[in-house]
Amino acid sequence: MSSTEFWNPKTETLDREDLKALQLAKLRYVTEWADARSPFYRRTFAQAGFRPEQLKTYPDLARIPLLTRDEWMRSQLDAPPFGELPVAGPDAAIRMHTTSGTSGRTPLRALDSRKDWSWTAEMWCYALWAAGVRANDVGYLAFGYGSFIGFWGLHYGMEKVGVLTVPGGAQSTAQRVRQIVDFDVTVVASTPTYALRLAQEAAALGVDLPGSKVHTVILSGEPAGSIPETKALIEEQWGAKAYDTAGMTEISTIFMFEPKEQPGGCHIIEDHFIEQVLDPATGEELPYGEAGERVCTSFGRSMIPLLRYRTADLVVKVPHTAAKSGRTWDLYQGGILGRVDDMKLVRGTNVYPRTVESIVRGFPEIEEFQIELVRVDIRDEIILHAELSPGIADERWSELGSALRRDLADAHEGLQFQVERAAEGSLPRFELKARRLTDRRPARSDT
Amino acid sequence: MSTDLLGRTLTAEEQRLSDLYEELKSLVQEPNDLPPCVLANLRNALASVAVTVTDLGIAYEHLIDYGC
């Protein structure tokens, strides 16, 4: 394998022991940095009895106190507008971004310095290069370019690689479809949900997307980028390869990417992050192959150090040997599997939105869907609202609905879903993170 | 002889990068009399080179005190 297949051949193929030594060296520096400059970390380190000089071996990582989103938010509310995590005031930064706000919670505000932002773009370069994107490509970013960090870093990453980069902000979906074709775009970036929405719009406009020059779709923002059924649908509708990535505003960029070989998982960018998988109940680090909560330590953002951040993402880490890309970086098998708290209990059966989506995406006639949980008297009901492509006859819906009910029950220990056809255009569409589950049940301890 | 973060001797190319990095830091260090056009562009250059030396494990540090 030639070195040009890697953005950074030196560290992407680094021996695991050397990689850990490199991480430890960076960890010592960044904890000293946080301790010296961030009022929040100085306080929480002291409260936990942690001092950076205690980091002598890799297991000492566990000495660093965990950080939660609630702690960050509380700090932001107590000391507005940025809280006490930043190491300097906004005059030292060149950018401010926020979380998406799609969860309904107050968005976090994050600051980046010049170097931070250059690093943000750099992390996207790892993903672009691994997906085979090169300087002769034409990239299109199908998102709104607001204060949410979204694909901002990817825009700069594309420029860094040398891609002719087209910002797709402030456009309708139809306008974006036309631009993608008119500008001979070869690489499109969007959420998985919006990639499907663009394909639906193309079909409505009579645009032949598989016949366009697009060969690669870069996905981010939702776990669906690694759901095989969703990815297959995107690849079929675009006639292109789709590659998953994942990031978050709290680090300003992505921490994992799917290599060209599509091994069913994403490499963690391990020379810039330490990613741990913890048992969410005990906080103990889990071995390879066990599902747990993703905890992230980032070396990139100087303005706001992120140490042992509890992301609430559900992941399974597997050794680098699970992929044949030649990289020595471990992977998250199946990407982000969901949220540690998004499992719903319905009449004693666990229901994960990811599992439902994987089944629904097996029916390409379904354009959009919503899951609704309600309580009727004392009985919980789960309803799948499915909106079909225009022109699907009632007879076909009858067959499709039956098949859907059967497959959903088979995947959920016989749990019977109510499957209802939604009127055309009645379900919400999403450009950013989709929200497809509404739990209307009164709060109860077992749900 | 300079070494990287793993204690390995820098290659000739890495040494040149390291020298460039240190030179850029020296140039933008406050106080200086650089005109705004020079300072801003050198800081951008330093940000890029800092990412490069970090990628290669040659150096790792934050540069807020250098306007980066």
Brief synopsis:
Chain A has 447 residues and is an alpha/beta fold. Chain A contains eleven helices and 20 strands. In chain A, strands 3, 4, 5, 6, 7, 8, 9, 10, 11, 12, 13 and 14 form a twelve-stranded mixed β-sheet that branches. Chain A has a four-stranded mixed β-sheet with strand order 19-18-17-20.
How would you sum up this structure, described in words?
The complex is a heterodimer of chains A (447) and B (68). With 447 residues, chain A is α/β, with parallel strands linked by helices. Chain A has two domains: 1-339, ANL, N-terminal domain (Rossmann fold, 3-Layer(aba) Sandwich), CATH 3.40.50.12780; 344-439, ANL, C-terminal domain (GMP Synthetase, Chain A, domain 3). Chain A is 30% helix and 24% strand. Chain A has helices spanning 9-12, 16-37, 39-48, 69-78, 114-130, 152-161, 173-182, 192-205, 228-238, 353-360, 394-411, and strands at 95-98, 109-112, 138-141, 164-167, 187-190, 216-219, 241-248, 253-257, 265-268, 273-278, 291-298, 306-318, 331-333, 338-339, 344-346, 349-351, 366-376, 379-388, 418-422, 437-439. In chain A, the strands form four sheets. In chain A, strands 3, 4, 5, 6, 7, 8, 9, 10, 11, 12, 13 and 14 form a twelve-stranded mixed sheet that branches. A four-stranded mixed sheet of chain A has the order 19-18-17-20. A two-stranded antiparallel sheet of chain A has the order 1-2. In chain A, helix 2 (16-37) packs across helix 3 and helix 10 packs antiparallel against helix 11 (394-411). Chain A starts with 8 loop residues before the first helix and ends in an 8-residue tail after the last strand. Chain B has 68 residues and is mostly helical. The model of chain B has no long low-confidence stretch (mean pLDDT 97). In chain B, 54% of the residues lie in helices and 0% in strands. Chain B has helices spanning 12-28, 36-55. Chain B has one domain. At the A-B interface, helix 2 and helix 5 of A face helix 2 of B.
